[in-house]
Specification:
Layout lengths: L1 E5 L10 E5 L9 E10 L2 H7 L15 E9 L11 E4 L2 E3 L19 E2 L11 E5 L4 E2 L9 H4 L5 H11 L10 E5 L3 H12 L3 E6 L2 H9 L4 E4 L8 E6 L4 H9 L1 E9 L12 H4 L4 E4 L5 H13 L6 E5 L3 H10 L5 E5 L1
Parallel strand pairs: 10-11, 10-13, 11-12, 13-14, 14-15, 16-17
Antiparallel strand pairs: 1-2, 3-4, 3-8, 3-17, 4-5, 5-9, 6-7
Helix pairs in contact: 3-4, 3-8
Length: 337
């Protein structure tokens, strides 16, 4: 089968990956094989191949926003059959035995494995997955194409978890939420928050992104050099830049929360404690749980969530990663085998 694998960290993402011919994977006990139909590119993929995240397995096939069709079912699997539409997310497996798994926090599992980091992911024609960590996509119906669904499986789900970590939910109507950065994940988080009746204030780097945020229903949108018109009850930072976290804290009202939606930041600069006082807080968002996925997917239709993407052939994965590095992306890139 054709695949694009990450084989060495490199500051130029095009030199870190290569197209290869791999043997067809065979599902083992408790596993499925998916014929991949779409795989979205995430900034985490870029941080992996450039070495900002230390490699766990080399070579490895990146990609953790995977849509496909069940092609083969291994022994000891129930609830799946050939032909089922399925999706994979960042969490590939959790042990189910550690103190975090036993307290409904499998995203913090001490022995977790992650798709495209510890096990092969979606930049390929086929992938093997753990059946218990593969997600039924029937709830989405047939209206959304596989290309449109793929960005939901990281950007959407982690954006949903970020809202929860920031204290924003279905009972948060009227609250004021700030989104710092406006890539694929933020566009989906905005739509969920608006569905819940939350006022959304977007701070981003370009006038084009300001226009997109306004078109999606932001109460206010502006660039980083503009002052917000209100104090925020909560904020989520999507940009992998520590200085943005400091800006978000300064924008909080008393008791507000900043949730950092990033697996890697360049730094966390020194900040004035007075900006954090009055029970303001900073929390990180680490991975997602299967329950996050199960709660999020039904919201897609209910909230009328749409995704923005550009489709590329699988062999253009180096091009997609290079353009993500340059900020030359609107929404997400989706690779098609």
């Amino acid at each position: 089968m054709r695949a694009v694998e990450y084989f060495t960290p490199d500051s130029d993402p095009a030199d870190a990956v290569r197209e290869v011919d791999r043997p067809m994977p065979v599902p083992g006990s408790g596993q499925l094989r998916l014929r991949i139909t779409a795989s979205a590119v995430c900034r985490t993929d870029l941080q992996l191949v450039t070495g900002q995240l230390p490699p766990h397995l080399l070579p490895v096939v990146p990609g953790h926003q995977v849509v496909g069709v069940v092609d083969a079912v291994g022994p000891d699997v129930s609830g799946w059959q050939v032909g089922d539409r399925a999706g994979l997310v960042w969490l590939a497996q959790a042990c189910g035995r550690c103190r975090f798994c036993l307290s409904d926090r499998e995203n913090l599992c001490l022995h977790a494995e992650f798709t495209g980091w510890d096990v092969d992911g979606g930049y390929a024609e086929y992938v093997v997955s753990q059946a218990d960590f593969t997600h039924h996509l029937d709830v989405l119906g047939d209206a959304m194409s596989d290309e449109a669904v793929a960005p939901l499986l990281c950007g959407g789900v982690i954006g949903f978890r970020s809202l929860r970590v920031a204290g924003v939910g279905a009972d948060s109507a009227g609250q004021r939420l700030g989104l710092y950065g406006f890539g694929a994940s933020a566009t989906i988080a905005l739509q969920v928050a608006r569905h819940w009746g939350v006022e959304v204030y977007v701070v981003t780097r370009s006038d084009a992104e300001v226009e997109r945020a306004t078109a999606l229903g932001a109460t206010w949108a502006g660039t980083y050099d503009q002052a917000l018109p209100v104090k925020l009850d909560a904020a989520i930072t999507f940009a992998p830049v520590g200085a943005v976290v400091v800006d978000a804290v300064k924008a909080l009202d008393r008791g507000g929360v900043v949730a950092i939606n990033a697996i890697h930041l360049d730094e966390l600069p020194a900040m004035n404690y007075d900006d954090l006082w009055w029970e303001r807080s900073i929390r990180s968002v680490a991975n997602v749980t299967r329950e996050d996925v199960r709660e999020f997917l039904p919201l897609v239709a209910a909230a009328g969530i749409t995704t923005q993407f550009e489709e590329l052939p699988l062999e253009d994965a180096p091009v997609a990663l290079t353009r993500v590095a340059a900020g030359d992306v609107r929404g997400a890139f989706v690779l098609r085998p």
